[in-house]
Amino acid sequence: MSGRELSRRFYSVKIAPAVGPVLGRQPHAAAMLGDGSDVLGYDDDISPDHDFGPKVQLVLPPELDPDPLLAVLAQLPTRYEGYPVFYGSTSTPNGWSQGQPAVSTPEELFRARLGFDPAARIDLADWLATPTQILATMTSGPVFHDPAGLLTERRAALGWYPDDVWRYVLAAGWLRIDQEEPFVGRTGGSGDDLGSRIITGRIARDQIRLAFLIARQWAPYSKWLGRAFAELRLAPRLTPLLQAALSSDRWRERETNLCAASSVLAEATNDLHLAEPVDPTPRQFFDRDIRVLGAARLVAALTAAISDPEVRRLVDSLGGRADGTLRLPGNIDQAVDSVDVLTNVALRRRAGPTLGLSGWDDDRPG
């Protein structure tokens, strides 16, 4: 069975050795949050070869003493249905501890995973320094028990960006397209076929990530990016175009299909009504025999619509280039491509200057 179902059974079946019946009426919340394909619901027959088993993350109200609950949990077996049992932990690198019962308060859990507690105010730096893959695993994993809303309310607060943060991150995503869209034709036309293919792949990935932003869905990490993308509303229109661009042996076909995909995404961006609409028709790149969407127009429209003082101040402080285009590092996923940074909360919390947040206190609590 799936990891989610295995974990649900380990928590909620009505007979021992399940967690729920053992805990009885002791106040707590239980969930399956954190890293792992099984948390996202993407595990398959290959997944059980490592780090697989029932996972139950236990959360207590901060005023409760955890020792009585831990003593009860210690009576449970360390294996269930033939698999090792994992409990939520805020001290292990991946958030799970095999066999050893562990509990946390909701603030401890979210600070350990995000660097902040979403029950308090989530500021601009918190949003931008948190990878979408972390937000996905903290908001999509199943909650088995939460009568007091210890987890549910915090997950609701992480549901999506505030509108002006959304505009900013969307604009940064379009800027990444703008910065490389002429290069598919430039490299291909100069005989650099390998270079053209590499850039095609980079742009296709950025287009997929834009599709997640447009759909208001947190994008997972690379292993599951394509699978999760296939579930988006735009996928049926974009997938044939991206497949054609990535498989073509002719740079002109790559360029044509990428431009068509950008047009679909531009139309969808217009439909969000976050900014003044932009003509989604591809156009010539200066006097060259190269076609592009001209994504800088979406960058300009989205940033012009930002009114939140904090986000506006960030955009204005970043300045622009001599050609009039803006400088927008965006969120940490857009600015950093290192797994070791994206999965390390301490390094992410020190990324303020990289994201243009030069006034962010990197040493603040959490």
Describe what is shown at a glance.
With 366 residues, the protein is α+β, with helices and mostly antiparallel strands. It is built from 19 helices and 10 strands. Strands 1, 2, 5, 6, 7 and 8 form a 6-stranded mixed sheet that branches.
Description of the molecule:
The chain is an alpha+beta fold. It folds into two domains: 3-157, no CATH class; 163-328. 48% of the residues lie in helices and 7% in strands. The strands form three sheets. Strands 1, 2, 5, 6, 7 and 8 form a six-stranded mixed sheet that branches. Strands 3-4 form a two-stranded antiparallel ribbon. β9 (283-284) and β10 (291-292) form a beta hairpin. Residues 362-366 have low confidence and may be disordered.
Q: How far is the N terminus from the C terminus?
A: 37 Å
Tell me the series of helices and strands, N- to C-terminal. HHEHEHEEEEEHHHEHHHHHHHEEHHHHH
So how many helices? 19
Q: Overall mean pLDDT score?
A: 92
In quaternary terms, these chains amount to single chain
Radius of gyration: 23 Å
Number of strands: 10
Q: Determine the fraction of residues in helical runs and give it as a percent range.
A: 40-55%
Q: What best-fitting shape do the alpha-carbon axes yield?
A: elongated
Number of domains: 2
Alpha-beta classification: alpha+beta
Largest beta-sheet characterization: 6 strands, mixed
Strand content: 5-15%
Low-confidence spans: 362-366
